[in-house]
Amino acid sequence: MDFCAIRHFSHAERKVQVAQKRETQGTKRLQRQGRKLRDSSGKLIFQDPILCAQFLRGYVDIPMLKDVQPGDIEDETERFVHLFTEERNSDVVKRIRLKEQKMPFYLISLIEHKSNVDYNVVMQIFRYMTFIWEDYEKEQERKQKGSSKTKGFRYPPILPIVYYEGTGKWRAAIRLHERVLFGDMLGEYVPDYRCIMVQLNQYTNRMLMEKEDELSIVMMLNKLHGTEDFAVLKDEVPSSYLERVTADTPEYLLSFMGQLTEILLSRLNVPREEAERFADQVKERRMGELFANFKGYDVQETRRVARKEGITEGIERGRKEGKEEGIIQTIKHLKGTLETAAQELAVQCGMSEEEALETVRKYW
C-alpha cells in the first residue's frame, strides 16, 4: 500500500513539475541574459559615453570634470584587457580628453556587484595604474626617444573609482596603505592613493532624481532587489520625472534601459508577459506608465502552493487506491473470485458495481 501511495504521489508531483516547466520555458533565456546583464549593468554605465559623462559630472567631485561630454570619452578597456582576470571582466578603463589640456586623463572603474566584497580591489587598481603609466611612457618614447627621461616629463593622472552595487556595507580598503604592512607607519616611503568610493545603496531615490538624467533611472533600477523596493520606487518617483528625463534619450540607450527593466522585474517574480510589457513601455518612450499597473507578484509562492496541493492530492489518491488494491489482493489471496472482490469493493469503498469491477480488473 505504501508503494502505491508513493507511486501516485510521484505522479502528482510530476504533473506539477511539468506545469512548472511549461511556465518557465519562456523565461530561461531571459534569466540567462539577466544574470549576464545584471552583472554587467554597472560596467555599461561606464562603457556608455552618455552615462559615463553623467557619472563623472554628478558623482565625482572634481572641478575639471564638471563639463566633460560624451565626445570627450574614449574607451581603452580592450587595450588593457589582458590584465583582467575572468572574475574582473567588468572593470573599465577610459581615456578622457580635457579641454585645453594635451595630456590625457585616465579613469579606472572597478565595479563590484556582490555583497561578498573583494578585499584586494585597491591593489588591483594599483596594478592597472602602473601598467597605464608604463604604456604611456612607451607611447611617448615612440614619438620622441628619451622624452620620459627629461625634467619636464609628466605621467597622466589616473582617477580610481570603485562602484559598488551590493546591498551590504563596503568593508574593504580604499587606500593602498591599508593593504601594506606598516603602510601608515612608514608613511611617505610607501606608495599610497585613495579610491573614489561610490556605493549605490547610499543614494536614495530622491537624491538620484536631483540629477535629472538617464543615469539616475538606471541606478534606481539597479537598486531593485525585491518587490518591496519596486513599491518604494513607485511611490517616490513620479511618472512625469521618467517621461521628462527619457524624452530625448537615444534609442539604443532606451533599449538597454528596457532590457534592464525586463530582467529586474523577472527577478522580482513578475510574470514574463508582464515584464515584457513593462520593457516595451520603456523602449516606446512610455516609461511614465511603468508603475501605473504594477502590482506585487510572487510566482514562487504560487508554485509552492501548487506543489503542496499536488502532493496532498497524490497522497490521498495513493491511500485510496492503496486501500482498493489491498482489498482486492486479500480476496485473491483467499482464493476468492473476481466477482466476490468487486462486490466487497463496492461495499467498502462506496463504488458502483461497474466501477468496482473495472478497478478489480485493474489490480487482479
Short description:
This protein is 55% helix and 7% strand. Helix 6 (214-222) packs parallel to helix 9, helix 9 (251-267) packs antiparallel against helix 10 (272-283) and helix 12 crosses helix 13 (353-363). By secondary structure, it is an alpha/beta fold.
How would you portray this structure in words?
By secondary structure, the protein is α/β, with parallel strands linked by helices. A five-stranded mixed β-sheet has the order 1-2-3-4-5, with helices on both faces. Among the domains are: 2-18 and 301-363, no CATH class; 48-202, no CATH class. It has helices at residues 2-47, 49-59, 121-143, 183-186, 205-209, 214-222, 227-236, 239-245, 251-267, 272-283, 299-333, 338-349, 353-363, and strands at residues 73-75, 92-96, 105-112, 158-164, 196-199. A hairpin with an 8-residue loop joins β2 (92-96) and β3. α12 (338-349) packs across α13 (353-363).
- Please work out how many helical segments DSSP would assign: 13
Beta-strand content:
5-15%
Order of helices and strands: HHEEEHEHEHHHHHHHHH
Q: State the strand order across the main sheet.
A: 1-2-3-4-5
Query: Segments where pLDDT lies below 50 for 5+ residues?
Result: 1-16, 18-39
Structural features:
elongated; alpha/beta; disordered N terminus; 5-stranded mixed beta sheet
Give the topology.
Elements lengths: L1 H46 L1 H11 L13 E3 L16 E5 L8 E8 L8 H23 L14 E7 L18 H4 L9 E4 L5 H5 L4 H9 L4 H10 L2 H7 L5 H17 L4 H12 L15 H35 L4 H12 L3 H11 L1
Parallel strand pairs: 3-4, 4-5
Antiparallel strand pairs: 1-2, 2-3
